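testing teh design pipeline on a random one, pls ignore if ur not involved
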């Protein structure tokens, strides 16, 4: 069964860096709407505002010493359980979900996901499409090429290791992916450990060189031969991960 799943998943591999899976239309429009309804039904206090986006944290607080776990709500486990079972890439059920909301001119600076997580991430995209860029981790020696520098200020996301992407390693080439609504992106291996991923904070993003352009992708329009995604609406993403180190939420009662 697991073997069958892996074979099924292999057809969604995109690009040449191990290993990136892009599954178009992973959820239906109705499921997308249901998820968005639940996300926007959460109390305003559930949102944490960062400089360049808002986010909701589900599953508990990630600390260096582990996750102070809280159960995911059923509307989230419905999709995380499906991702867990169908991908067979996670060692245990997904127990942490970060929901990011981006306005058309918002993004996330190049970063690597923090060490608390198992090095596999599944990102479900809802709403407006966006381009995600992968650039080689700057810590590689023999850096010989230069990539576009994302000049966005650092934000205070504790579960991320963030760094500038001025230098990149020549044998690892940058690549990008067009993330269409309802698609599921999964990345692991080198794409997780040797690359930073980010989204530029501009409303118009080129995607003519995205590695998944032939993978069921439809984009808004073309300008002078360049395929461009015009971000006209809000994008909401669900970053689904596993934290293996889980701390018991001990409540000390006095008396
Ligand atoms: O919104 C996305 O697609 C990416 C989010 C992300 O990289 C993260 O939460 O670590
Ligand atoms: Fe990330």
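output:
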């Amino acid at each position: 069964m697991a073997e069958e799943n892996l074979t099924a998943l292999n057809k969604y591999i995109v690009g040449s860096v191990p290993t990136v899976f892009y599954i178009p239309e992973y959820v239906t429009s109705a499921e997308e709407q249901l998820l968005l309804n639940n996300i926007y039904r959460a109390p305003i206090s559930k949102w944490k505002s960062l400089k360049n986006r808002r986010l909701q944290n589900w599953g508990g607080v990630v600390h260096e010493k582990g996750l102070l776990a809280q159960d995911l709500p059923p509307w989230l486990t419905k999709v995380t359980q499906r991702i867990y079972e169908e991908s067979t890439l996670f060692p245990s059920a997904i127990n942490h979900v970060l929901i990011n909301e981006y306005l058309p001119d918002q993004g996330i600076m190049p970063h690597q996901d923090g060490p608390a997580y198992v090095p596999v991430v599944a990102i479900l995209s809802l709403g407006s499409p966006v381009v995600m860029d992968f650039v080689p981790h700057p810590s590689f020696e023999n850096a010989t090429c230069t990539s576009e520098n994302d000049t966005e200020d650092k934000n205070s996301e504790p579960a991320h290791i963030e760094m500038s992407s001025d230098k990149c390693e020549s044998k690892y080439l940058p690549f990008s992916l067009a993330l269409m609504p309802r698609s599921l992106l999964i990345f692991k291996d080198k794409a997780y450990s040797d690359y930073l991923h980010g989204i530029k904070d501009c409303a118009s993003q080129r995607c003519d060189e995205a590695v998944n352009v032939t993978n069921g992708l439809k984009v808004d329009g073309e300008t002078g031969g360049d395929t461009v995604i015009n971000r006209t609406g809000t994008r909401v993403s669900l970053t689904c991960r596993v934290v293996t180190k889980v701390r018991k939420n001990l409540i000390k009662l006095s008396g």
